[in-house]
């Protein structure tokens, strides 16, 4: 997806995509990943604890989607709540436009770029 001359990394091709991957690849090697295990386990426990008392949940939205948003927020040094909001925007961006209100995808992209700019 492209917005105002900017392209999401997911939609980039080499060599542009490769250059961005090089910026972050060291964070995904064995050593740094192993160091994050205790924090990731803590985040996972928090996700489960938030729904366990109810005895049911909408799995993807309330658990499955939470963990990636938490991990990305952690990696980027963002507050967890910001990670949640960015995840919601990402879900809107990747939803078929026909399933959304008019211009919802464009508004989500704009919000994401405004967040990044700020």
Tags for this model:
single chain; 118 residues; mainly alpha; two-stranded antiparallel ribbon
Provide a short characterization of the protein structure.
It contains 7 helices and 2 strands. With 118 residues, the chain is mainly alpha-helical.
* Distance from first to last alpha carbon: 21 Å
So what's the overall shape?
flat
Q: Report strand %.
A: under 5%
Q: Which quaternary structure do these chains form?
A: single chain
Strand order of the largest sheet: 1-2
C-alpha Rg (nearest Å): 16 Å
Number of helical stretches of at least 4 residues: 7
Structural class: mainly alpha
In N-to-C order, the SSE pattern is EEHHHHHHH
Can you give the helix content as a percent range? 55-70%
Q: Report the uncertain regions.
A: none
What profile does the largest beta sheet have? 2 strands, antiparallel
Average pLDDT rating: 87
Q: Please provide the count of β strands.
A: 2
Could you walk me through the main structural features you see in this protein, from its secondary elements to its overall organization?
This protein has helices at residues 16-24, 30-35, 37-52, 59-64, 66-76, 80-93, 104-117, and strands spanning 2-3, 6-7. With 118 residues, it is mainly α. Strands 1-2 form a two-stranded antiparallel ribbon. A hairpin with a 2-residue loop joins β1 and β2. α6 (80-93) runs antiparallel to α7.
